[in-house]
Write a structure and sequence with these properties.
heterotrimer, A alpha+beta, B alpha/beta, C alpha/beta, A: alpha+beta, four-stranded mixed β-sheet, 8 helices, 4 strands, C: alpha/beta, four-stranded parallel β-sheet, 17 helices, 10 strands
Chain lengths: 164, 518, 423
């Protein structure tokens, strides 16, 4: 979307309608904030700029600081720009036991990216994530909303190599 | 939660045992408050009696018999028969642990921190800490010297995330403009919008910050606390009469902070009132008396004033009082008017904006006192009477006698903060330079006390008025102390007859209560 | 030889089980029909009490008792289903949500009926987009079929079920943090009292149950509390989902009756032993927040009370196995990194202590640990234990202290001598 809509401080009509609908599920509309922020983040290039924070706060009638605090509390919200895709590689115990550290090194070297960083061509942002809940099929990663389990370096390459 | 399990003996109290001492305390209060009744201070950072309970600092840990874990005193209500330990080894160990955690990443800033001397980290580290540092890691770096606007400066490294400021701005001031960003050890306070606070009550967060994270741009680096003198008084910026403690050094006011009074201002005051004291520090203020354009001793000026007014005659004199005068000064002025037989007695009342919290539309501390002394509120349109003399005590600010009224008076006696015209001109003191009382908009009689001296040769308005009165009536007995002056006034009024200075205490008394009591 | 007893996972291998049609064909929503048409709400609770069902989130609190704490009041009541499955090693609730979501929805409706609620929120961690999708599809189907919404199955009962997505914060699996988060805030745990059953969502009575717990309710009402109580063993009735991960031949999510096998049998017989064939070095029996068990401690019966006697806990049913190639220093640091990253930062001891523990363990891993660090580590973890609002601090303290105690020699061997420390 729509750098233009962003400049105007408006969300798309469809998103607006979806959020309004989410709000009806709760006695207080603020409760829809976090589910709505997933959608907002998606529409606003994957991160929360000051402007997006302000627009979100306005829509929910909460303070900017509240929205910023929510962004900072939840690992899936981004306070800085991200690449076209977000790769989350699980780092916690079960995945570590199954070799997640070596996979991290593989990604860093092969794609010349640091954990938390974005590839030079902007294809993906690489995040080491705490437990993603696929411990019995470790090691695993999420690429945007798609999951890849029982990872090996070649499986990773097949996925990351295909990103555009 | 004051359910039936906390209600005790039915007359609203419960018996508890704190550190072996049995104490009766109000039912339903928490253990930190109960400690106050038992004379035991239970340390606390995040707990503030006027804010919701957050329970995050964990320093108020106590042991409650029958409960396996240590409990936080701030969120534990007393129950009948509860046995509490606040000082045993287990509790001491727990507190020392929390103390250490609070200091692990705290910067070694005390030498340049304004909070030093009134810092709960310093106090509790001495009382409850182990006195050693066991970490060899670099302390976390967070933003320092962050501007939160023109009044508050924030230091994130010093912040212990107690959230008192967050809760105050949300629950009391209603602006909800501070929140926390990030998580865990990276958590840090942030301000909404452009990062500048907007609340007209924002400076209260400086007072309730238990550490040096929030400091006052106005006060910071001006003085160490232990070089200062502190005076309990009230704010004079409006008729609310917020109770304050004024800090001064070398006869200059350095700061005012609110003093808790549940009947007036709780623990708060507005920023405008807090910062409005510069007039008292103004070195160019009038300190001398003049008569006929010449500087004369104050006593001589008072004598000349009395002669001038007597000559003009009471019938031919206009008296205009100031609602910034103390009740006793107003009463002294009334005495002079009575001695002269003045008929036209008014006072000027500055008015302005109000809010729904503390700010009152009357921008003066003692309009009630002026009215009680028989001065009428100045009319919108002054009658075009020609007077032989004017006896005028200028309001400190916000209102003034129209020039044409002054022009209609042949001769003038003026009490003023500034140099200027007048056949006799006498200097005003400010409220921090004398003892006395004000009567607030809530009809509460509250004491003010002398904290500074502007010029040691000056006399108070009361002293000058007494001298004038004595010049008019040799039988007039001059009160010597503030207490005597107060008693003289109190006994003249039906509702306060018999009320005495000592009855006023630290928090004052309401006129209604006084009436009921005497 | 131990074998699975599949109740919740009975139809998990059938991809069509996600659809309402197949779910109904397999007996789905019969329990709801029975409850709404033949039972009073109190009778549903009675049946659950009779079943002996204990919470499957980790604490093991009796489910029916929790429901009984809901006071009689005119305020609305809520059910919040904890699907913020975040305890390392745990991925069982995901199986239910993704493979057989209707049993969760049916359980949610039954629970709402029992406690007098008209709204259930399923708080699913944001990292589970597939679970969220599967549940949303299932709820839509059920709504269209008159099973969710107004006049459910033609009765007067009305109840909405909503999926609510989290956004990546372990702490939101703590039940009061879940409520704070659901209301649109940073996920801070709340002080107790008041307890959520009295003052939960928006100040109203709220029951919070784990996904697996609610799924069990469906089967209990369908087949009776006595039937459920007859499965498993005393104190751990019914079946339970276990997630076996780490160094085993056959990791996976399995459904067993508790008390019918030992942990050793599970790992060596059922899961085929270690992947490498090397000896087991340690086992985390209930998620990463529970004390580690040594190879010689694996012969306990695997049920809540028996595991508790070892000094550890069955926790969330996540079993993580280390073979002897694992450096305990690495494992300890990994666990500390997790909990210090996930500390919400509200309470002083956890905010400051978890990061401090992480830093000391990093020193050990880097070969720079000293005797003094060892002593400080013990004392800092002691000072964190039991001094915070929620149990996240303990979730770091318990495993860490168990590593220190049970693998002391490994830590000591990695220590730098004091003399060699900084001058």
């Amino acid at each position: 979307m729509s750098a233009k809509a962003a400049r105007e401080g408006k969300f798309s009509k469809e998103l607006h309608a979806t959020i309004e609908d989410l709000m009806t599920r709760y006695p207080q509309k603020k409760a829809a904030l976090i589910p709505a922020m997933h959608l907002i983040q998606k529409e606003r290039e994957g991160w929360f700029s000051r402007e997006t924070i302000r627009d979100t706060a306005e829509l929910f009638a909460v303070s900017d600081a509240h929205v910023q605090g929510v962004v900072g509390f939840y690992d899936m919200f981004h306070a800085d720009p991200v690449g076209r895709h977000v790769v989350r590689l699980c780092k916690t115990l079960s995945c570590m036991l199954r070799g997640a550290d070596a996979l991290k090194d593989h990604i860093c070297e092969k794609y010349d990216v640091e954990p938390g960083g974005t590839t030079d061509d902007g294809t993906f942002t690489f995040k080491r994530f705490e437990c993603l809940g696929h411990c019995t099929t470790a090691p695993m990663m999420l690429v945007d909303e798609e999951k890849y389990e029982e990872l090996t370096p070649s499986k990773i390459d097949a996925v990351l190599g295909g990103l555009s | 939660m004051s359910g039936s399990d906390t209600s005790g003996n039915g007359n609203g109290t419960v018996k508890i045992t704190i550190d072996g001492q049995e104490t009766e305390v109000p039912a339903g209060i928490n253990i930190v408050e109960a400690g106050r009744y038992a004379g035991t201070e239970i340390p606390h950072y995040c707990y503030h009696p006027r804010l919701s309970v957050a329970g995050n600092c964990r320093i108020c840990l106590v042991e409650v018999e029958g409960v396996p874990k240590l409990q936080i005193g701030c969120n534990t209500a007393v129950r009948e028969g509860m046995v509490i330990y606040t000082k045993n080894d287990r509790v001491s160990r727990g507190r020392a642990g929390v103390m250490e955690f609070l200091l692990v990443n705290h910067p070694l800033d005390c030498t340049i921190c304004d909070q030093a001397g009134e810092c709960k980290l310093q106090d509790y580290a001495v009382d409850h800490g182990d006195g050693v540092a066991r970490t060899d890691f670099d302390r976390l770096n967070k933003p320092k010297n962050v501007s939160w606007g023109d009044k508050v400066v924030f230091d994130s490294e010093r912040c212990i995330l107690c959230t008192r400021c967050v809760r105050f701005l949300d629950e009391v001031a209603g602006t909800d403009e501070v929140s926390i960003d990030h998580r865990g050890e990276n958590a840090a306070l942030i301000v909404t919008g452009d990062g500048q606070l907007t609340s007209p009550y924002q400076m209260n967060i400086i007072d309730i910050c238990p550490v040096g994270a929030l400091t006052s741009r106005d006060f910071r680096f001006k003085s160490r606390l232990w070089f200062m003198r502190f005076t309990d008084t009230v704010c004079t910026s409006c008729a609310r009469g917020c109770n304050v403690t004024l800090g001064s050094r070398d006869d200059k006011i350095l700061r005012m902070v609110p003093r808790d009074n549940p009947d007036v201002n709780d623990s708060w005051m507005c920023d405008h009132g807090r910062l409005h004291y510069e007039f008292a520090n103004d070195d160019s203020r009038l300190a001398t008396s003049t008569a006929g354009g010449k500087t004369v001793p104050h006593q001589v000026a008072a004598q000349k004033a009395a002669e001038l007014l007597k000559k003009a005659g009471g019938e031919n004199t206009l008296c205009v009082a100031s609602p910034f005068m103390t009740t006793e000064e107003l009463f002294a002025l009334k005495g002079v008017c009575d001695a002269l037989g003045v008929k036209d007695r008014y006072f000027l009342k500055p008015v302005g904006e109000a809010d729904d919290m503390l700010v009152h539309p009357e921008k003066c501390p003692n309009a009630r006192g002026a009215a009680l002394a028989g001065f009428a509120e100045a009319p919108d349109a002054w009658p075009e009477t020609e007077y032989g003399a004017l006896l005028y005590v200028e309001p400190r600010e916000g209102a003034a006698l129209p020039d044409e009224v002054t022009a209609r008076c042949k001769q003038t006696v003026v009490f003023s903060l500034q140099k200027g015209k007048g056949d006799v001109r006498l200097p005003l003191t400010t409220w921090i330079e004398k003892d006395g009382t004000f009567i607030s908009a809530g009809d509460r009689i509250q004491k003010i006390a002398k904290g500074t001296t502007f010029d040691p040769t000056m006399l108070t308005e009361a002293a000058l008025l007494y001298r004038m009165h004595h010049a008019l009536d040799e039988g007039f007995e001059t009160p010597v102390t503030a207490a005597q002056a107060f008693a003289r006034w109190a006994d003249e009024n039906e509702s306060t007859n018999g009320l005495r200075w000592k009855d006023l205490g630290r928090f004052g008394v309401s006129m209604e209560t006084a009436e009921a009591a005497v | 030889m131990i074998s699975e007893t599949r109740i919740m996972l009975e139809f998990a291998d059938d991809p069509a089980q996600k659809t309402l049609e197949t779910y109904r064909k397999n007996g789905g929503y019969q329990a709801l029909e029975k409850a709404l048409k033949e039972m009073k709400p109190g009778e549903v609770t009675e049946e659950v009490l009779k079943s002996g069902l204990r919470g499957r989130g980790g604490a093991g609190f009796p489910c029916g008792r929790k429901w009984q704490f809901v006071p009689k009041t005119d305020k609305p009541k809520y059910l919040a289903i904890n699907a913020d499955e975040s305890e390392p090693g745990t991925c069982k609730d995901r199986q239910i949500m993704e493979l057989d979501p209707h049993q969760l929805i049916e359980g949610a409706l039954l629970t709402c009926y029992a406690i007098g609620a008209e709204t259930a929120y399923i708080y699913v961690r944001g990292e589970y987009p597939h679970s969220i999708g599967a549940l949303e599809n299932a709820i839509e189907e059920a709504r269209a079929a008159g099973i969710v919404g107004k006049k459910i199955l033609g009765t007067k009962f009305r109840c909405d079920v909503w999926v609510h997505s989290g956004a990546g914060a372990y702490i939101c699996g703590e039940e009061t943090a879940l409520l704070t988060s659901l209301e649109g805030n940073r996920g801070y745990p709340r002080l107790r009292p008041p307890f959520p059953a009295v003052e939960g969502l928006w100040g109203c009575p709220t029951v919070i149950n784990n996904v697996e717990t609610i799924a069990c309710v469906t089967h209990i009402i369908k087949r009776g509390g006595d039937w459920f109580a007859g499965l498993g063993c005393e104190g751990s009735t019914g079946t339970r989902l276990f997630c076996v991960s780490g160094h085993v031949q056959k990791p996976g999510v399995y459904e067993f009756e508790c008390g019918k096998f030992t942990l050793r049998e599970l790992l060596e017989d059922f899961c085929g032993g270690t992947l490498s064939g090397r000896p087991i070095k340690g086992v985390m029996p209930g998620g990463s927040s529970m004390p580690v068990l040594l190879p010689e401690e694996l012969d306990c019966q695997f049920d809540i009370d028996s595991v508790a006697k070892t000094g550890s806990s069955l926790g969330s049913g996540a079993i993580m196995v280390f073979d002897d190639s694992v450096s305990i220093l690495d494992a300890a640091l990994n666990v500390a990194e997790f909990y210090s990253h996930e500390s919400c930062g509200q309470c002083t001891p956890c905010r400051e202590g978890s990061d401090w523990v992480r830093k000391i363990l990093k020193k050990f891993k880097d070969g720079n640990g000293t005797q003094r660090d060892w002593d400080v580590l013990w004392s800092v973890t002691d000072n964190m234990d039991g001094t915070t609002i929620c149990a996240l601090a303990e979730a770091l303290v318990w495993p860490t202290q168990s590593y220190l105690k049970k693998y002391e020699a490994e830590f000591k061997a990695a220590m730098k001598s004091e003399a060699g420390a900084t001058a």
